[in-house]
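Internal ticket - ligand job 382, magnesium ion:
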Amino acid sequence: MPGFGPAPLVKLRIVRIEVRHLKMPLRFRFETSFGAVTEKSFLLAEVFSSDGARGVGECVAEDHPYYLPETNGTVSHVIRDFLAPLVLGRVFESPVETDAVFAGIRGHEMAKASIEMAIWDLFAQARGESLTSTLGGLAKETIPAGVSIGLQESEKALLERVRLEVAAGYQRIKIKIKPGQDIGLVKAVRKEFREIRLMVDANSAYTLADAEALRAFDEFDLMMIEQPLGWNDIIQHGRLQKLIQTPICLDESITSEAAAQSAMSIGACRIINIKAGRVGGLLNSRRIQAACAESGVPVWCGGMLESGIGRLANVHLQTLPGFSLPGDTSASARYFEEDLIEPGVTVDTAGLIRVPKGPGLGHEIVWSRVDRATVHREVWTI
Ligand code: OSB
Ligand code: MG
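stdout (structure tokens):
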């Protein structure tokens, strides 16, 4: 693994875990091929060590299993009954030890990731360094930002949104598509914006029988088409990639390094979207990034409409080598009237986000706002 200096030796004994359920209104309705949301409903894990330090990990599960199988309900259950008992009372010398500790539990990547990410943050803080340093990221000042635009009620509404985001400086525009709302939208966006970096995300709305229709995208110079086929169907993506020129990017299908290796070995994708929550955490994100670098497959960081807490973790993740494409990490203010962090994540007119240099996530968490958004809370102690 690149970038690992000798880390200061810090031993942390985990003495308390809290999981909160938060609800925050979104500033817009976000619609994908699998459904629409108007509020962000998510779990936040807090892990405390005996010296009083606290790390936080935002979970990317939703209330429903329409994106991937996990839900806020399954995550709560798995943390309560399996992960918390494995971590409480244990002494960690490095966040990577969570990998071995959780190894016996199959699947449940989002549940594991929320605890694992909290432990990374805890170590970063205990060592007095930024999460970038703990992760072994590059000392970058900025990372490039892209934006994901949901399905809109009309083509006109979509074009208005694209105008807004292009004017804001975003370096890459992604639009959501589904059968019936696809090629026409791309044509309309391309007609007005010849030069922008443009891509589409289908969230598994098509089948291989749609290959001809998907080939029609080839003439629009898209950076990629994200997850056109079944969420767990790597083989069919391999078949489709042979029939179309637009690079396929996998999102839902990549839940582990093994899945990434399988996909790359059969040419099922030319680009991979990494979401730490989807792959079991930051260590697996790093492994996938390294495997992709070895195969010359570019990666970028996906988003799950995170609050500022998960958003900042995504910013640090994108300092790893290989994150060469703009991700779905956008400004806090796009999503929320009031984010949970101060200052919020901002994007400048060149489409760049500053990488925080302070300890841990690097921005202040406003706990009074976290408390206000909390609808339920569970605590476990040794
Ligand atoms: O497929 O990338 C996706 C949001 C929820 C579930 C799946 C996806 C998304 C996004 C949002 O595209 C990206 C963002 O955080 O802005
Ligand atoms: Mg996606």
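Auto-summary: The mean pLDDT is 97. Residues 26 and 39 are 5 Å apart (CA to CA).
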